[in-house]
Amino acid sequence: MAEQKKQSFLHGAALLAAATAIVKVIGAFYKIPLNAIIGTKGFAYFNTAYNIYTVLLLISTAGLPVAMSKMISAANSLGNTKQVKRIYNTAQTIFLCLGIPFGILMTCFAKPLAVFQEQPDAWAAIACLGPSAFLMCLVAAFRGFFQGHQNMMPTSVSQVLEASCKLIVGLAAAWVIKKMTAQIPLAAGGAILGVTIGCAASAAYLFWLFRKAYKSLEEGDPSLSPDSYTKTARDLLAIAVPITIGSAGLQLITLLEIKVYMGQLLASGFTQDAADTMKGIYDMALTIFNMPCSFIIPITVSGIPTITAALTVGDHRQVKATEESASRIMALISMPCALGLFVVARPVMALLGGYVGAELDMAESLMRVLSLCIVFNSLVLLTNAIMQAHGHANIPVINMFVGGAVKLGVAWLLTGNPDIAIRGVPVASVACFLTIATLNLFSMNRCIQQPPHMLRNMLRPLLSGLIMAVCVFAVYFGMSQIFTLDSGFGKLILVGAPVGVGVIAYVLCVVKLKAITREDCLLLPKGEKIAKLLRL
Question: How many domains are there within the chain?
Answer without folding.
Answer: 2
